[in-house]
Design goal:
Elements lengths: L1 H21 L3 H23 L9 H25 L18 H4 L3 H16 L3 H29 L3 H7 L7 H8 L8
Helix pairs in contact: 1-2, 1-6, 3-5, 5-6
Protein name: Protein-S-isoprenylcysteine O-methyltransferase
Organism: Candidatus Xianfuyuplasma coldseepsis
GO cellular component, one term: endomembrane system
Length: 188
């Protein structure tokens, strides 16, 4: 439980990163992003070393491991590649991303993080990681609500229009259709 709470502090650090980016505090924003990621990674490693608390077949664990890798890749892709390394530069260029995984939902990282921890809980047969999947998703949702209100609406003039066409976290039929027909995913 302690590790889960320590990891939750990472989300506060992410919000401070966003605010620092908005205010153009170059050095400070890096401190916050490094702290946030470090807290979450450290907490995850500590939870992975806890004794197994339920049993799962080897086959299910192998499938869960594969899915963990997929959702970790999607998390990295959505947050660091689609949004762009440019966001994490010293002088960030803010550009609203509305295609790719961001046509599915406004915050695809929330989905990928939940699924990553859900499947990691199966890999490590760990109830704490399973609870973490739900708790961190709740905290992550609070974070993105603040992020939208405090940062995104101020940085992007077109953000309100984007909120009308794309759901926050849970995809709908329209966003699924838009995502599946996005030219980013298929060759023209």
């Amino acid at each position: 439980m302690v590790y889960m709470v320590i990891g939750m502090i990472g989300f506060v650090s992410f919000l401070l990163f966003d605010i620092s980016s908005m205010k153009k505090w170059s050095f400070v924003k890096y401190v916050f992003i490094v702290i946030g990621i470090s807290l979450m990674v450290w907490s995850t490693v500590q939870m992975a070393y806890l004794a197994p608390s339920f049993l799962v077949s080897s086959g299910a664990r192998i499938v869960a491991f594969g899915l963990s890798v997929v959702f970790f890749g999607l998390l990295i892709y959505s947050v660091f590649i689609e949004v762009g390394i440019k966001t994490y530069k010293k002088v960030a260029h803010h550009e609203l991303v509305t295609d790719g995984t961001y046509s599915l939902v406004r915050h695809p990282g929330v989905i990928w993080l939940f699924l990553l921890y859900f499947f990691l809980s199966i890999v490590f047969m760990n109830t704490e990681l399973l609870i973490t999947a739900f708790v961190w998703t709740f905290v992550n949702t609070l974070y993105i609500m603040f992020q939208e209100r405090i940062v995104l609406r101020k940085i992007f003039q077109e953000y309100d229009r984007y909120t009308l066409t794309t759901p926050m976290v849970i995809p709908n039929i329209q966003s699924l259709r838009k995502f599946m027909t996005s030219t980013i995913w298929r060759k023209e």
